[in-house]
Amino acid sequence: MATNPRKRQQKLERRAAKRKEKQHLSARGKSAGLPERMRAASRCPVLDAWIADVVWEEGLGWVVLSRQLPDNGIAVSVFLVDRYCLGVKNAMVKISDRLDYEKQFLRDWRKKFPAQDVSPAKARKFVEDAVAYAERLGLHPHADYDTAKLLFGDIDPTECKEEFEFGKDGKPFFVGGPHDSPARCKQIVATLRESCGPGGFHFLIPLVGDEEIMALGPDETEPDESLPGPDGREE
User: Fold this and answer.
1) What does the H/E/C string look like for 108-162?
2) Residues near 66 by Cβ (< 8 Å), separated by ≥ 6?
3) Which H helix or E strand runs over 201?
4) How far apart are CA 30 and CA 147, in angstroms?
5) HSE of 155 in the Cβ direction (CA atoms, 13 Å)?
6) Any idea where the domains of the chain sit in the sequence?
C-alpha cells in the first residue's frame, strides 16, 4: 500500500520537532546554574549524611549531605565547619556519577576522615547552628554556602533535639589555616576584638614568612611561648 507523501513528511517533521525539543531540554538542563540544579536535587531522596569525628575532637571538619538523583547521579553538598569560630569556613557542591561518589566520598574521604552517620536533621542543624554562632561574632560563611545549603531542601532541623557546643573553653578560638592570608587573619582578629572585646577570644595565627605558629591573646603584644609548639600543640 502506497504511503501518502504528505502524511509521511508531516510524520517526519513531528519526529524532528520532538528530537529538537528533547535536545533543547537536555542542553538547558546541562547549562542550568548550580543553584537551580541543587534546588531540583533537594527534592530527591537523601542518600548519606555524616559528620567527621575530627569536628568534635579538634573543632574543624567536614559535614556531608548527598541525595540520589533520578538519573543515578549523586548530588553532594560539603561543608567545612569550624566549630570553634568561623562557622562554615568552606563549602562546595558536586554532582557526580555513583562510581565517582563511592570512590571519592565513601572510600577516600571516609578513610581519611573517619565519620559518623547522622540524621539529615542533625547535619542541617549543626551546620546552621555553626553559621548562626559565627554570625553573632560578625563572621560570615563561605561564599558558596548559599548554594550548598540548597540541598537541605525541606529537611526539618527541629527534628534534632541535640544542642551543640561552639567556641573553645567558653570563648571563640580562631585558628589561622594554611590558606588564610595575613590580611585575612588580621581582619578576623579585628572583627573578634570588636565583637568580643579584649580578652574575649583566643587565636592562633601563622608568623609571616615562618612555619611556626604563635598564639596571641587579643590584649597581648608578645607570643605566649608556653602554649604552642611547631604543630600548634602545647609543649
Assistant:
1) HHHHHCCEEECCHHHHHHHHHHHHHHHHHCCCCCCCCHHHHHHHHCCCCHHHCCC
2) 46, 47, 48, 49, 74, 75, 76, 77, 101, 105
3) none
4) 17
5) 29
6) 38-159, 168-235
Residue pair 77/91 in contact (Cβ under 8 Å)? The answer is yes
Q: Residue 32 corresponds to which cell in the numbers above?
A: 542550568
Query: How far apart are the C-alpha atoms of 127 and 198, rounded to whole Å?
Result: 28
Nearest to 125 by CA among 152, 151, 144, 105: 152
C-alpha dihedral (127, 128, 130, 132), degrees to nearest 10: 170
For 136-156, how does the pLDDT look when each residue is reduced to its tens digit (9 = 90+)? 999 999 999 999 999 999 999
CA distance 80 to 87: 8
pTM of the model: 0.77
Q: Where are the beta strands (DSSP E) in the chain?
A: 46-52, 60-68, 73-82, 87-97, 115-117, 173-175, 202-206, 213-216
Q: What is the pLDDT of residues 44-102, one digit of tens each?
A: 999 999 999 999 999 999 999 999 999 989 999 999 999 999 999 999 999 999 999 99
Rounded CA separation 219/229 (Å):
21
- Three-class DSSP category at 1: coil
- 94 in Cβ contact with 209 (< 8 Å): no
CA angle, residues 42, 45, 46, in degrees to nearest 5: 85
Distance CA 96, CA 73 (A): 6
Q: Which residue has the cell 565547619?
A: 81
